[in-house]
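Narrative of activities, Objective 1.

The group set out to show that a structural description can be obtained from nothing but a protein's sequence at a throughput compatible with the screening campaign. Below is one input-output pair from the validation batch, recorded exactly as produced.
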Amino acid sequence: MPQPAPGAAAPQASPLIAKAAAELVGTAALVAVVVGSGIQATGLTKDVGLQLLANSTATVFGLGVLIALFGPVSGAHFNPAVTLAEWWTARRGGAGVTLRETAAYVPAQIVGAIAGAVLADAMFGEPLVKWSTHDRSAGHLLLGEVVATAGLILLIFGLARTDRLRFAPVAVASYIGAAYWFTSSTSFANPAVTIGRAFTDSFAGIAPGSVPAFIGVQLVGAVVGLALVALIFLPGRSESE
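Output recorded for this entry:
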């Protein structure tokens, strides 16, 4: 039986199909929140600061709810970078998903992300699929994605190492909300969400040509995050040490 996942509360012994469904639906809902709130915000105000505030606030609340809801089933990853990082720690003797679960989670997350973007566009009367024209290929944006993803992995696995996963819904949602503002890229930090957001030419979109580089640096950020976890949260250290 797989060990508790680091994305949220310890998952129950759910069938793999239920776990994959939770990842698909959860990722779809997350992208629908991100894209839908972005469309809503641009329709209500021309102030880009207010648009970002509305988008980030909706994402914080939406993500927190989704982690609390789906965490007990799948761990509420909604993110291939988190799933792959957890699989890596599991194969090295830590807690995490199996290779079979990873092979089910990642496609489910990608399909869910695309479905969520299409759903958001449909709800606001936008073309169901319209490739984004929002170029995000600048080097400083890629650096922002490395930072955002490394911080996310450090947070999740740091909570797992210190047995405080019960705080994941609040902590992870709060981090993403903060990272919207302190990273230049507005913190995608998620390969599946990045792919999904290419399908919508809205405030939250990303041009398809920018997607490969974003995913590449997100994976780099995941590696950096795991290295920081290994450095900071050394196994077997006592409180006095």
